[in-house]
Design goal:
With 88 residues, the chain is mostly helical. The protein has four helices and two strands. The N and C termini lie far apart (105 Å). The model has no long low-confidence stretch (mean pLDDT 78).
Length: 88
Amino acid sequence: MEENGIIQKRPFGLNIAFPQKTVEEVKKVVQQEVEAIKENPLSNYLDENSKVFDGTVAKEIRKYQAQIYAMGQAAREGQPTTTFRMEM
């Protein structure tokens, strides 16, 4: 590595040897992942959950929140208020 006080640089990672079994396992995993993408593409996910992305779910949530608020307001207004009579 060192000649006459000069350190020679080698590219990192080029001197690493992987076992053949590891290389085969990596190939197998990559092939499985590619096949999974072909079988279940992202477009299916987007189609199945389109209501989330186009705002329909947010509108429904706001509608239910407004209903709950209105019911709570009506319940608060319908409750009898307690008054204290102080007679002397």
